[in-house]
Write a structure and sequence with these properties.
A hairpin with a 4-residue loop joins strand 5 and strand 6. Strands 1, 2, 3, 4, 5, 6 and 7 form a seven-stranded mixed beta sheet that branches. Helices cover 20% and strands 41% of the residues. The protein is an alpha+beta fold and 121 residues long.
């Protein structure tokens, strides 16, 4: 399976509201539930109205479109990283999945995945 590194730093945020979110950015993941409003964005684009934020995340995505019938893609990647004591924050879109790890674990995560047969572009 092919993975692609996203060459920038991300921040995971908890927001008051979406009024200051820059939706024109290439990467902007918003999640809303009955309990919270979360945002993953470039570290340089964190809105001023964040309630909490955690800087220093790097990301890679699974290349290609993942059919909904595929089973275990994300769980296999997360298992490799868990076996190497690397925590993740995962975001899914209609087409694919994005996996974020802390910056200090990113190189180690790539090495572990390559060792387990994943290819990075």
């Amino acid at each position: 399976m092919r993975l692609k590194e996203i060459p920038q730093e991300f921040c995971i945020c908890r927001l008051e509201d979406i009024s200051q979110v820059d939706f024109s950015e290439d990467f902007c993941f918003l999640g809303k539930t009955d309990e919270e409003l979360s945002l993953v964005c470039r570290s340089s684009k964190v809105p001023a109205n964040t309630i909490a934020k955690d800087y220093g995340w790097r990301a890679f995505r699974i290349e290609g479109i993942l059919e909904f019938s595929l089973v275990g893609v994300l769980s296999e990647i997360s298992a490799v990283l868990a076996d190497n004591k690397i925590g993740i924050f995962a975001v899914s879109t209609y087409n694919t999945d994005y996996i974020l790890t802390k910056e200090e674990k990113f190189t180690e995560a790539k090495k572990a995945l390559i060792k387990n047969g994943y290819l990075f572009e």
